[in-house]
Amino acid sequence: MTERACPEGHLGGVERPEGALGGVDRPDSSPDQGLHREPERDGLLAVDGLSITHDDGELVDDVSFRIAQGERVGLIGASGSGKSLTASAIMGLLPDGLAASGSVTLRGRQLLGAPERELSRLRGKDLGMVFQEPMTALNPAMRIGRQVAEALTIHGTARRRAADRARELLDRVGLPERTARAYPHELSGGQRQRVLLTIALANDPALLICDEPTTALDVTVQAQVLDLVAEGVRDRGTSLLFITHDLAVIASVCERVLVCRDGRLVEEGPVRAVLSDPEHDYTRRLVEAAL
Ligand SMILES: Nc1ncnc2c1ncn2[C@@H]1O[C@H](COP(=O)(O)OP(=O)(O)O)[C@@H](O)[C@H]1O
Ligand SMILES: [Mg+2]
């Protein structure tokens, strides 16, 4: 894997949605210290030597990276390169038949092999997640307001307070008041994805993982949802792992990018540097294909 110096902690001249990405307030992230090289000081998530195997062999091979508090990191790579499996391993949601080895720690706490009870406490509270297909992640038979409220009550908010808070949170992602009483099928794809983002951020998680959250949406709607993701994590100081095959999306949301190929990380660095001057042939081809 190539290590780059980390000349800047923000996105300099890269185009990004207006107003969506003011700098995250991180007074201790001085530019030349390279966040990913000082994990012991401000690391939130540390993935070390993560491998994921099944009977036929290795699907993810010795992947290591860090995400600092409040940092927004993109994970790119062609379809099948191991992005989703990496995210699933972090969340303790690997499909049956796959085994993970190595280490995944969140604030120093080992997640790999942790008991399911502990992981389900973490999911939705410390780890928020948004996937590509919002319909399958929502309960079709439950009103939206109740689903958001449940995300809060499961993690300790009083029922009465949760209903009010759910309405506030839905309003914050620009959904009209009537949304709370609607069922998932009554909403558009973009609205459903706003609901999932609301649920994912409801408990102010330390880390939000988004896996291709806008891939199924129209381009204009994609931009709105991306703005909301960026705004949501910025407002809360949440760290972000954003998975996509779309390099333009990475440029608009992330500060740093990891490039995954055939289950390995082949390059990482500040988004602007990697996209404008990729060191690895594979990254260069991804960038060229996106132009
Ligand atoms: N449950 C599974 N069993 C066996 N192989 C799997 C399973 N899930 C994913 N894979 C394989 O692992 C590789 C990485 O998959 P994935 O992480 O979903 O890729 P990406 O998200 O980058 O498109 C692919 O070759 C895929 O076919
Ligand atoms: Mg995937």
From TrEMBL:
One Pfam family per UniProt: ABC_tran
Coiled coil feature spans: none
Positions of the UniProt region annotated as Disordered: 1-40
Chain ranges of the ABC transporter domain: 45-287
Keywords: ATP-binding, Cell membrane, Membrane, Nucleotide-binding, Transport
A molecular-function term among this protein's GO annotations: ATP binding
Protein name: ABC transporter ATP-binding protein
